[in-house]
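Design a sequence for this backbone.
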């Protein structure tokens, strides 16, 4: 292992340089300000183009996340997007990729 000795002002300059790089990386990230919406079962079925029974199967198998308030089931827009991403299949034919 190599030992590197820095003077305090060199260490401080190094820290500031690293912090500037981190700030630049953070500022280049797109802001995530999407509003989360909630859908009931009929709305979710229409969005996903599936039957109520299929949606029930997805819930029972833990394939799609949901929230329940009393006896009412809700699906968040982020959970629906996550479900779609998990079930997305990429093409195996490079000609169309």
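Sequence:
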């Amino acid at each position: 292992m190599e030992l590197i000795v820095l003077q305090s002002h060199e260490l401080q300059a190094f820290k500031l340089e690293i912090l500037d790089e981190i700030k630049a990386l953070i500022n280049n990230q797109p802001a995530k300000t999407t509003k989360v919406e909630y859908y009931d079962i009929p709305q979710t079925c229409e969005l996903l183009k599936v039957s109520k029974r299929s949606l029930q199967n997805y819930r029972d198998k833990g394939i799609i996340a949901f929230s329940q308030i009393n006896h009412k089931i809700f699906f968040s827009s982020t959970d629906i997007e996550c479900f779609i991403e998990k079930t997305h299949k990429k093409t195996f034919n490079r000609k169309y990729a």
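The radius of gyration is 24 Å.
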